[in-house]
Write the structure tokens for this entry.
Amino acid sequence: MIVVMKVDASSEQMARVITRIESDGYKSHISEGDERTIIGVVGESPTPLKEENYGAMEGVDKVVRISAPYKLASRTFHPADSLVPLNGSKVGGNKVVVIAGPCSVEGRTEIIEAACAVKEAGATALRGGAFKPRTSPYSFQGHGEKGLQWLAEAREMTGLPIVTEVMDPALVPMVCQYADVLQVGARNMQNFTLLNAVGESQHTVLLKRGMSCTIEDMLMAAEYILAHGNMKLILCERGIRTFEKATRNTFDLNAIPVLKRLTHLPVIADPSHAVGYSEYVEPVARAAVAAGADGLIIEVHPNPAEALSDGRQSLTPQRFASMMEQVRRIAEAVGRTA
Amino acid sequence: MIVVMKVDASSEQMARVITRIESDGYKSHISEGDERTIIGVVGESPTPLKEENYGAMEGVDKVVRISAPYKLASRTFHPADSLVPLNGSKVGGNKVVVIAGPCSVEGRTEIIEAACAVKEAGATALRGGAFKPRTSPYSFQGHGEKGLQWLAEAREMTGLPIVTEVMDPALVPMVCQYADVLQVGARNMQNFTLLNAVGESQHTVLLKRGMSCTIEDMLMAAEYILAHGNMKLILCERGIRTFEKATRNTFDLNAIPVLKRLTHLPVIADPSHAVGYSEYVEPVARAAVAAGADGLIIEVHPNPAEALSDGRQSLTPQRFASMMEQVRRIAEAVGRTA
Amino acid sequence: MIVVMKVDASSEQMARVITRIESDGYKSHISEGDERTIIGVVGESPTPLKEENYGAMEGVDKVVRISAPYKLASRTFHPADSLVPLNGSKVGGNKVVVIAGPCSVEGRTEIIEAACAVKEAGATALRGGAFKPRTSPYSFQGHGEKGLQWLAEAREMTGLPIVTEVMDPALVPMVCQYADVLQVGARNMQNFTLLNAVGESQHTVLLKRGMSCTIEDMLMAAEYILAHGNMKLILCERGIRTFEKATRNTFDLNAIPVLKRLTHLPVIADPSHAVGYSEYVEPVARAAVAAGADGLIIEVHPNPAEALSDGRQSLTPQRFASMMEQVRRIAEAVGRTA
Amino acid sequence: MIVVMKVDASSEQMARVITRIESDGYKSHISEGDERTIIGVVGESPTPLKEENYGAMEGVDKVVRISAPYKLASRTFHPADSLVPLNGSKVGGNKVVVIAGPCSVEGRTEIIEAACAVKEAGATALRGGAFKPRTSPYSFQGHGEKGLQWLAEAREMTGLPIVTEVMDPALVPMVCQYADVLQVGARNMQNFTLLNAVGESQHTVLLKRGMSCTIEDMLMAAEYILAHGNMKLILCERGIRTFEKATRNTFDLNAIPVLKRLTHLPVIADPSHAVGYSEYVEPVARAAVAAGADGLIIEVHPNPAEALSDGRQSLTPQRFASMMEQVRRIAEAVGRTA
């Protein structure tokens, strides 16, 4: 951490900053410029440095953090890629995994039909929501535990592991009984109560980026889960909110290589939410894999025009099969399989 | 709702749209242009119209919603201003209410001292967090129920009602035992499990705008609470996330008059979070009241440089008293009191 | 400037950074932490420091700038408020100036009528565009020099000085013959050719913030003008582009106190563009003055439904007169006049 | 266009809207709902419909545009892909073109060296700026016409056509004497004077997306150029400004397939500016081609740490050659060459 003093800071104000640094257990390293003084804070101490408090001291202009605020999630802590097992593959390994299925679990028949279709096309896992976060209280909210049971049936028939969202910290133990992977949705990325609950569960977690969360925010949210000793964590870029309204969100493609550099955790992409229109899902899926994504999560529905949610962005099984073909070719072009 | 057909839509595709409109219980009103056909959907039906499904039908270019998706929150439903009682005042009435106090409840003495100071300066209610949503799992997370007990003591001594955040749906009943107003924080604005829980509680709620949520998203979140019959709801603009980094967030001043027009619910502003630096809190507070805000929520700390959270944006009690003077003059200039 | 070395930087890489600092004419101040080394760059030199080049050196993690990149625009360079004369007032002084008039100059009669109306209500200056930057090539582009002549006539009749936009660097001398204040529009805030031309003109300039420009970008654009020795410069906040679409732009209210602290230049606000709907112009205008704006620029049109541009956000003369009353009361509440 | 009346609109207000529609030469198609009336505007007329004016009429709630506001740029107007010749290739055809070179032309030797290196690696054209738009007036502004002469020499030696930026409308004829392609930079995307000048020149133009411009804004800027009969236009996605600061801009990958659907014009990508750090340029370049980009523009510098501008994002010739290899494999995977 670096404390930048104001141009007109008094020597007393500087002395107070230095005293505080020492009482926090660090050493201060003073660099007097022609215009102003800069104080480097070095060393280690059990007391975490509170930038904000230093920023609120008199005579301080600003405080600049040097180290990343996350630890367990960083490549410095864990240089090698973390591998998270999923259906015989390892997410984060050579194979690009593809999780596919409908937005919501709409019925027993529907989810089984979807599961068979995505399996046929080569999906690694089945997605489907039994608890749905909906902007409107009047929209379909999901079938709840019944939906989980249907998912379990679909798994039994196809062998595909299940990825499903959990929204309520109190329901984490119940959802764990059915799900192979707990999904934390974008709107809950900073629901710290939920992050603690899924961390404690020791279940595999898929953490989606919040629509206005920075890459650093995402790694801090990951840190909440990792801090419980739960290292089975997959990150997912799903688009951020910007001024552009031609698409539902703006897919932050840059985030894929940036995350792969900053963290050892596997990173997948959700083109369906990132773009919001089925006609653009295929190019975005290809691009994500070309940029180094370890996998994809794709909305597939037998009949998008009848879907209870997200029909506008769902691929038909036919289109999904075609997407898989394209993704395989891109995966090969970057030295991977899909 | 209006369904805009593609330029090259076939008559069969159009017929299928019309059939669907009718089977949903509405009437279709066809407008054939030179270039393309537009279908208006009119009438009422118990079946909600799913824009997304129509958007996913073949031959459909786009779907345009005409009516607001919220009902109970709208001025159409409830034309008069809703008044929410708080400490003998009515939030949403002539008096501009001011909720003030530290970000976190840090100790018994500290919160009592802060309560006395803000009361002295004319605050309407006391704020203070016992459960803190922190970006980092390594930051101070709040004193929990003990913090609530200290808040209750401070209320007993000063008569100021308590506004405090609740993060965990399971803890809503417990927090209700202490708090006069339940705060739902920005990061939880679309935590629908929590919205349902505070709605059911029938307790007064302060709902803060999510940092990337639109005004419409906010009214939909309000709708979740109102749908439980809990009309004691106060909305709070607290800044949105934009590209500008000179301030912590970008205060969306426009949102105040827009919300006052769209909804009957009272609207307050949080200049502390909206700007993030104590030196700018006063002008933003004045502006919010000048624009028509029904109240303010302000972070005040006896010693900001020692605050366990948000020190950089906290006013000292002296500055807060000065702010109150300024706010009173602005309130008078717009025909209100403070 | 501070150069933060990578955790694994070699001593050779560090030596190369130090050599470069010295050859650029500065001194380096090394601070060895437990994890990594930080190099402070101090002293003065005619060679400007190129952060980007240091950032591109091997072994460098990142480069942190400490000083503001603008000089002439900063309060450090010029601590007192700059005052820009306008119609007997000084923009930046105690009086809140109000520039008002139609978006476009539509005809001789119309602009004279508008000028009389805004003068009657107490405006300080008349605005009106003769050259219009329009998103569409098919929209009305302005009457050009004829429009400027009509503006000059309106000035003669009312005594109101003229504020008008210039878009083409080649036309700056011609526009200077008519205009009292040259407006550089938001879309041209980083049109450096134009900034140089208006700087050279030594005419009073009104510089509007670009819709995606930071406060720092704006001060750098100001620096282009000031670097020509032209200090008659007024800055204008007019809303930025964000995800919120309920209003045309998002008025960055925070920018007013931030700019007033960083720069000595006067700062005015444009509520008409900032919000985009006439029904919200009054509260935004009140708020801007409450936050410390030195003036306002307001679109007023005798008949908004017939305006050739920006009708949706234009006030009628009656509403403008009412706004002036409100603004006067707010100005008094902050110890100013209007 | 659709005019949505307010719920409480009077029949007189509606009549006035209808009268206006008719006097503008269109037909109105009234759709009376249970709650409110919607008026469709159909037919053709030489009078363009001014949404804003209708929006400013009494009794009107909002106006919804149905057709795209651009014509010449749209697929409806020109269904087949437009092909723009460049160095024997056609931009927009099967081959993915790659334009490469330094940000600025820094000297005769440097640009010739760079030209040879990028040619060797397989580039289609040479980029290099002689006129540089710089945020700071104190930064290197380019060598001007001398830089153009050096570019011409480099072309003579390598056969690579030249892509270079023009900033001043008055200099368009001069730049045309040297350049094969005129680049309009992001900060000038809505500099309409410049758009008109490059349109009139009938020279090939590369139009970069403004950092806060929507896809529609970009197509409207294209329309300015096309309206002069200049159809030799290439669009370029180069990243937009968002809240994420881990990268210089946010590459809007979605924009590539969206533009390819909306317009017939070729679309290329600029990964260098879109991400801003050389270590991420390769994955972003691969992704752009995977998503369907017709080409790339890449900053390459023999010694990035000494570059006069943009060193942080420039590839060395070695890295560029490696990038070309990767891009070729991706191009093949999508059925193209590079």
Summary: Chain C has a mean pLDDT of 94. Chain C has two domains: 2-64, 84-333. Residues 84-333 of chain C form a domain with the TIM Barrel fold (CATH 3.20.20.70). The first helix of chain C runs from residue 11 to 23.
